[in-house]
Amino acid sequence: MLKIALINEPCKVGDCPFLEDLSLPEIRYRISAYRRLSTKNSTRIPNNEYLRNVRVAEAWGSGWFAGETVVWVGCVHVLLEIDLVTKFRLMILKKRNSRVVLNKAYAHCLVGKNDSSEEKRFSRTGKTRKCSGQPKLATLLFLIASVVAQPLSAQVTNSKYGQADSFRQLDEILPTPTESRLGSGAPGPQYWQQRADYVIQVEIDDEKKHLTGSEKVTYHNKSPHTLRYLWLQLDANIFAPDSDSALTSTAPSLSRISTNSLKRLRTRQAFDGSMTVTKVVDGQGQPLKHTLVKTMMRIDLPAPLEPSESFTFEVDWNYAINNSDLVPGRTGYEDFEKDGNTIYEIAHWFPRLVAYTDYAGWQHKQFLGRGEFTLELGDYELSITVPNDHIVSASGVLQNPDEVLSEAQRQRLETAKNATKPVFIVTPEEAEKNESSKPTGKKTWVFKADNVRDVAFATSRKFIWDAQRHNVEGQSVWAMSFYPKEAEPLWSRYSTHSIIHTLDVYSRYTFPYPYPVAISVNGPVYGMEYPMICFNGPRPEEDKTYSDRTKYGLISVIIHEVGHNYFPMIVNSDERQWTWMDEGLNTFLQYLAEQEWEEKYPSRRGEPKLIVPYMRSSSQVPIMTNSESILQFGNNAYAKPATALNILRESILGRELFDFAFKEYARRWKFKRPTPSDFFRTMEDASGVDLDWFWRGWFYSTDHVDISINKIRLYTLASPDPEVEKGEKKREREEEPKTVPSQRNKDLPKRVDQFPELKDFYNDFDKLDVTENDKKAYEKFLKSLDEDEKELLLEKRNFYIFDFENVGGLVMPIIVECHFEDDTKQILRIPAEIWRHNNQKVSKLFITPKTIESIQIDPHLETADTDVENNHWPRKVIKSRFQLYKEKKSKNEMQKAKSLQKDASKDTQK
Ligand SMILES: [Zn+2]
Asked: In the 3-class helix/strand/coil scheme, how is 218-235 assigned residue by residue?
């Protein structure tokens, strides 16, 4: 076990005695900013540059091989989360006979305001050693896991060079290609995936807010493996009072709390929305042994399920639906007190097959709330029974319009087929009327959805419904929106338009939208996606006005959630493992779609400059981190990957190569299940560009971009003509600054003037005078040159050497704009590979006949460079404004009490 001790004052790098007496003194790594990826394919990212310059460590547990040596940095992740650590040190382990033995281990962390004191240290023998001259040690915080030999790490540092190899290929990190997943990133000839078809009946009890369901599932074992049991996800169990999600949620800040938050805290403890499973039987009605494991359920098969066999079983269940105001989630109901009605948005509501995959077996990582859903594709038949005055919207195509829609509504649907604008199917007036109706019975709405990974639905008597059929690259798609009057006037204006816009833009960058329906519903859930249907929250104020934030928030969230049909509903990535694979890719396309909505659309994510504050921030983990362990969720899994892809597209590959490769990825993995390596490999395979350095830097590390122009050196060719060259040197000598003593000594009487006989040849000799010998040598040199060589001599060129420094650690192309004396400009785009031999400092030669006046790195803010101040040579004045204000004294408590009295007496006088 390794222990991390904390000390309460800074210890400068290098002065720790434990570092001084290392048995392997050549590896005194000064480590910082390493991240541990708490993933199955655990990888580690050191960043030498960062730690050399920044002595702040915000490390996550991390280890890597460096030649014979394994370096392990303890897990400080938890420390950071509780705001204790600002700094810490390293441990060095030695690897012997391929077993890792702890050789020297020492780590200490600084605690900002911690003054409790306790000391714990660790060495191989377990002896506690005093760190001489060190400040008092503070609390031992925790232990980290036993030291084990780590697999190859994300970066390998060479002990004889002290630099990580930023361009090392990712082969040792990515899984070995197979005939299922090829080295090219494409699915291979042996690719397989399971399939599950569902026939579901569900009823909503509007009085009790209760859902009762019954499903018949046919599971097709397409794998080459024999299965003895099946796993199902009961995601509603997240709403059990003792669910892992509830038990592991950490304490909120209680210094201030809103009444709503307090209500939620109270309700969350009492509410039980977990599933009651009432029946699990096989196709013949025989009970099946089943075991609940929190949000999962295992069904033991009566006989092993062989490859290419199918198994049919039935499950009945019911649960209490959560009031989304008190127990928020991706599903729930919203009560409207004014009219006594409810909107239900129902999701992750039926027992769903856990994905069984070639890369992970059963993906039955428990549902904690963040890591969404990893599901199998299949065909669904869905019967939804609700009060007969409800309007239902669901994944799939309505099968029984004659039974559930009025004649007028069916007629309007006919009109909407060829409309160029959305048409009301249920008008606002009708919806308003429905609100005051009472049901006279029940109705069952039947939907069919083919080749989807999930189904969701919404139901309410409040719904206004508009629709428009649209042609998406040859495919007819119904774009439809369902919303209450509270959503107006925003929704009828923007929702269906946003759906159609999304389908048009996304289809262009990926594949034509393959489903017949795309629906956006307004209800309690702010933004959540399911196949063919999504739930979106923004509404105007009660007085029907709305802010620009609400307007663009609505358009953006609809683009985003409809866009999720492509990732991960169709390109069926593993959400419980990787959030970025759907959120990152989707946010990237969302940005492209937003920019095609209107000029200067206020996109929140996508532009490199918008990611800068996050890239600079400290509490970070790499994008390649499991969904549940991500810090700064939105920035990590949405904004950073979206921005990285945008940069890859605009500044590294160019639009043509990027768009081709991205489309190829979407095409290859449509209705299949890709992993990160399939994405990384396909983007390289199709673009023809090695991007391992890019994935390594942007996806596997928390480095940021900060490239500095440190210096510019100018060289010119010396002239062989002694008249020119020596004359030039004389001028330079004249221009040299006169030192203070030389100026003051100038007028002192000199001895040689007093005694002229002391002067000889050297008193008059100037070695910069042109001699006869010089002239002869020049003539001879000229004669030896041919015409081409003479021309070289005549050409006037400036040889500039730019000295760049990589301060942030992330290697990136260097984009240099040169401003010349003659008021012209030129942009040099230097590929990232310039850093391949030295990822910290590089020099670049630039030859020009012109004279450079200034240069600027990344002039168009393409690379998310976090410090633009050092992008200028010469450095620029940093401009800012400050405001003048007049000080106002706030009232003291006595004054406040007095003015209250005054008010009160005024009131009584009235
Ligand atoms: Zn999303």
From this structure: EEECCCCCCEEEEEEECH
